[in-house]
Specification:
Oligomer: single chain
Strand order of the largest sheet: 2-3-1-4-5
Number of domains: 1
Helix content: 40-55%
Structural class: alpha/beta
CATH topology: Rossmann fold
CATH superfamily: P-loop containing nucleotide triphosphate hydrolases
Number of helices: 9
Length: about 220
């Protein structure tokens, strides 16, 4: 077993809602070897959060969510509706602040020997660069997991998520069309560190863990 894998499945830490609490995790989550960073990437509904949670289950890492962090910056709970609160939390400035905060937290965790999974769309090169920068600075391994699924699946997942109302994401079906326009292709350098994951395929989780292990070796 590769040292980044846990010997036993552990549940995703569920109460890490304040930045000060991350420091309390350093003892139990410290890496056997160097910590690593994984940046989830893809359109809404592509399975980024689900895949990220699987990494948390199987590896010594903590997941940071741009959706949760964005709402935290505006004083909202993860499941709260920004529309009902009368807030526009999806401005360019808000997005920049969100990724900068994620970057700051990831840098701290990596410096403490804790691996990090960043759950966000990261559609633009600048956003992905902000996410990867801490690992580059600290000379930690870092990878991008690009999650994919057909548009019909994306829409079905988003509708189900809206009905359940248990997710921090406020993505709508209409957003998918916009995201296709916003998404900037991975650079040649990024592609060298990218795992492409079709989350509609059977045994996609096994593929993710196998590919990540191969990247770390």
């Amino acid at each position: 077993m590769h040292p980044f894998l846990k010997e036993n499945r552990l549940e995703t830490p569920g109460s890490k809602r304040q930045n000060r609490q991350y420091a309390d995790l350093t003892g139990s989550c410290r890496q056997p070897d160097n910590p690593f960073l994984v940046v989830m990437q893809g359109l809404s509904g592509s399975g980024k959060t689900t895949a990220g949670r699987e990494l948390v289950k199987h590896t010594h890492c903590i997941m940071l969510s741009t959706d949760i962090e964005r709402k935290r910056l505006f004083g909202l709970k993860p499941e709260a509706s920004s529309h009902e609160a009368g807030l526009d939390i999806y401005t360019q400035e808000a997005t920049q602040k969100t990724y900068l905060k994620i970057q700051q937290t990831a840098r701290f965790l990596l410096s403490q020997g804790i691996s990090v999974v960043i759950d966000g769309a990261s559609l633009k090169l600048q956003e992905r660069t902000l996410c990867c920068q801490p690992a580059m600075e600290l000379q930690c391994p870092f990878f991008i997991v690009k999650c994919t699924a057909p548009d019909a699946v994306l829409k079905r997942r988003i509708i189900k998520r809206q009905l359940n109302n248990t997710d921090a994401s406020e993505a709508t079906v209409d957003l998918i069309v916009q995201q296709h326009r916003w998404e900037e292709p991975l650079s040649d350098q990024e592609k060298k560190r990218t795992i492409v994951l079709d989350t509609t395929r059977e045994h996609w989780c096994k593929k993710l863990l196998t590919d990540l292990t191969a990247q770390l070796n």
